[in-house]
Each structure stands twice: as C-alpha cells, then as structure tokens.
C-alpha cells in the first residue's frame, strides 16, 4: 500500500461533528447504533473520552481522516464478563467513516497497524474484538489480520463474535511487514 497511515487521538471539539456525521451513515447505523442527535452524540463522545480504560483515535490515510478507532483495556469494559481475561488483554473497535474508503482494502492494513501498536504494550499477549455477529465483512477482516473466532457473546447492544488475536500468531503472520517498517 503506497499510502501513509496515521492515527491521532480524538479531540472533542475538533472531531465531534465529523464523528457524528459518520455515525449517521446507513452502513454504520446497524452496527454502532449511535444515530442520535448531535447533542446526544457529543455527550456520548465526551463520556467516552473521559473513560480511562480506552483511547479514541481517528485513522488517517495520507492525512485525511477516514476511520474511527476505540482501543481499550478489557479490564473495566463490559466484555470482561464474557470470558476470563488476562489483566493486559486489549480490545479494538473500528469503523470506516468515509464511504469513499469502503471496499478499497484499507481496513486490513489499518487494523494491522493498530494491533501492532497494541502489542507494543508490555504484557499484552492477546487483543480481542467483538464485532456484531451479523457483520460478516468485519469478521472476515479480523480473521485476515490474525484473529480467530472464539464464541458468540451477548453484549448490552448486540450479539458479538468474540475473537482473539494472539501476539505469537500476529507476529508470525506479519513478521515481514513489520521488519520492513522498522528497518
């Protein structure tokens, strides 16, 4: 991919309008269920930004914001009740917000880069995901990245497919990619 991938932490004032717009997209609504008023979304985003167990990012391609990411520690998240988590397990949520970036193959390299970043945290041996069980496209992207299906889980807003990506599996699968990046 001959593009520059980058991530910036979400800033409430700078990003709330863009993120609210993305949440209103027909392809996002069924999975994120945040098609709410601007005021309600701003309140939601503010509370998520204040939550110390997660960090929110915009994903950019060549400097253009096009995706949203929630990188989180499983401890302190609702999903921790769905399996026996290790204290350093992390999780990831994502959405491609700009429709023009859908179906272009960007989700996998972006996911791979942020999971690599999560594995830089000492002690993290597993990154999890729990995409909506009906979101077959995202489940497929997670599998291509190195995640494996574990089991369906019931969460407050969806039935998710709990998926694990183990450090060893990830590093073996993407060794050549990350050696190239770091050398």
Automatic annotation (TrEMBL):
<dbReference type="InterPro" id="IPR019432">
    <property type="entry name" value="Acyltransferase_MbtK/IucB-like"/>
</dbReference>
<keyword id="KW-0808">Transferase</keyword>
<dbReference type="GO" id="GO:0046677">
    <property type="term" value="P:response to antibiotic"/>
</dbReference>
<dbReference type="Pfam" id="PF13523">
    <property type="entry name" value="Acetyltransf_8"/>
</dbReference>
<comment type="pathway">
    <text>Siderophore biosynthesis.</text>
</comment>
<dbReference type="InterPro" id="IPR000182">
    <property type="entry name" value="GNAT_dom"/>
</dbReference>
<dbReference type="InterPro" id="IPR016181">
    <property type="entry name" value="Acyl_CoA_acyltransferase"/>
</dbReference>
<dbReference type="GO" id="GO:0016410">
    <property type="term" value="F:N-acyltransferase activity"/>
</dbReference>
<dbReference type="GO" id="GO:0019290">
    <property type="term" value="P:siderophore biosynthetic process"/>
</dbReference>
<comment type="function">
    <text>Acyltransferase required for the direct transfer of medium- to long-chain fatty acyl moieties from a carrier protein (MbtL) on to the epsilon-amino group of lysine residue in the mycobactin core.</text>
</comment>
<feature type="domain" description="N-acetyltransferase">
    <location>
        <begin position="5"/>
        <end position="168"/>
    </location>
</feature>
<keyword id="KW-0046">Antibiotic resistance</keyword>
<protein>
    <recommendedName>
        <fullName>Lysine N-acyltransferase MbtK</fullName>
    </recommendedName>
</protein>
